[in-house]
Description:
Elements: H1 2-26, E1 30-36, E2 42-44, E3 47-49, E4 56-61, H2 68-88, H3 94-108, H4 117-139
Parallel strand pairs: 1-3
Antiparallel strand pairs: 1-4, 2-3
Amino acid sequence: MILEIYKSWIIVLVLHECVHIFFVLLFGGKIGKVVIGNFFFIKIKKVAISPIVIHCFVTYEEGNGWSLFKKSLVLLMPAVVNIAMGALVSSDFLFIKIFSLFIGINSLLPIPYLETDGYLMLKEVQKTLHMKKIKISLAL
């Protein structure tokens, strides 16, 4: 039972990060590193894997001139996939269903301390609005 819970958690987290990677590569960005887990890493090129997985993350460089739309797809589509998976997966995979909904909803929340996808998206929107204000004031 414990192993089933742990395995489900890892599946949901890795899927979430794979969606980030997919959209970064789709839009011509570069993956910096992929970290799966928290302690005692085995490093293979840009990937670090740990047997103890509490969270995962991906660092990346944006492609040339990414619009706010592309940035939002990179940041928010993993949550959409998690929520869709949580809604559509059979209840035979109960833990995957629960964790998918949990990760999907929590990643949309703008929590600064955790630097969730929702928080990073909020920062991108603020930066875009700030740049538009600067352009407007320069035009005047």
